[in-house]
Design goal:
Number of domains: 2
CATH topology of the largest domain: 2-enoyl-CoA Hydratase, Chain A, domain 1
Order of helices and strands: EEHEHEEHEEHHEHEHHHH
Number of helices: 10
Distance between the termini: 29 Å
Structural class: alpha/beta
Length: about 280
């Protein structure tokens, strides 16, 4: 696919997807959805890629759905059927992965590689949801977060009301959803919404350092399985999670990455994981 609204590059085993409508604070469109979807699939299929960064060009991460679209709906009404941004096709279903994590905006957990949101500026509305479904979130000191929906006469969409309380607790989730107030990076970190906050001048460098460490020091096979364990665990009983872990551990002990994990530690050298 030819990209018009995102940028895509790979370096040091890390794929970077950059939302690229900086004059609109990277407001989300159906075209952007399709391009991000395609780029995520490319990163997952590329054996040289072991981690993915999602960020925004310019001074914003994503300001939410393009307001020109929302304005036209507010003025002219909506024809029967789903809203335009909901009409983008679903991804092909992957066997063995809960359908919960394969919907339009909840599919990042199904990507077998870590997906890191580098929130460099405002992440609002749908932009907030996009960041939410990433596995890890780092914020620039310039970042701001807001759900927006209650102040637009809308509701918590795309599973936000399910996922957000699991990340930051019910009280914090209701605060952000009902008030739709904007919060800064420090409050986001206090709530547990982001994993770390870095100064704007060094932000992307610090995020890339983290991603490169994952890509170099951790087994890609282990990361893929651990990621699946965590998300599957949200839908499992403890007994089911333990049973699954026992099966996966038995398989891990047969793998090349296990042998390499022991060897590089004993030999005091950098690992050379293959993902096998």
């Amino acid at each position: 696919m030819e990209y018009h609204e995102i940028l895509y590059d790979v370096a040091d085993r890390v794929a970077t997807i950059t939302l690229n409508r900086p004059d609109k604070l990277n407001a989300w469109t159906a075209r952007m959805y399709e391009e991000v979807n395609d780029a995520m699939s490319s990163a997952e299929a590329d054996d040289t890629v072991r981690a993915v960064i999602l960020t925004g060009a310019g001074r914003g991460f994503c300001a939410g759905a393009d307001m020109s679209l929302l304005s036209s709906i507010a003025e002219g009404g909506l024809a029967d059927g789903p809203p335009p941004l909901s009409q983008a096709p679903e991804r092909p279903v992957k066997p063995g992965i809960p359908v919960d994590f394969q919907r339009k905006y909840s599919y990042f957990p199904s990507i077998r590689k870590p997906v890191i949101a580098a929130v460099n500026g405002p992440a609002v509305g749908l932009g907030f949801i996009i960041a939410l479904y990433c596995d890890l979130r780092f914020a620039s000191t310039e970042a701001r977060f807001g759900t927006a929906f209650a102040r637009r006469g809308l509701i918590a969409e795309y599973g936000l009301a399910w996922m957000l309380p699991r990340l930051i607790g019910t009280a914090n989730a209701l605060d952000l959803l009902l008030s739709a107030r904007m919060i800064g990076a420090a409050d986001a970190q206090r709530m547990g919404l982001v994993n770390g906050v870095f100064a704007a001048g060094e932000f992307m460098e610090r995020v890339r350092e983290y991603a490169k460490e994952l890509a170099t020091m951790s087994s890609p096979r282990s990361m893929a399985i651990i990621k699946a364990q965590v998300y599957n665990g949200l839908l499992q009983t403890l007994d089911e999670a333990i049973e699954a872990a026992e099966r996966e551990m038995a398989e891990s002990l047969k793998c090349d990455d296990f042998k390499e994990g022991v060897a590089h530690f004993l030999e005091k050298r950098m690992p050379a994981f293959t993902g096998r």
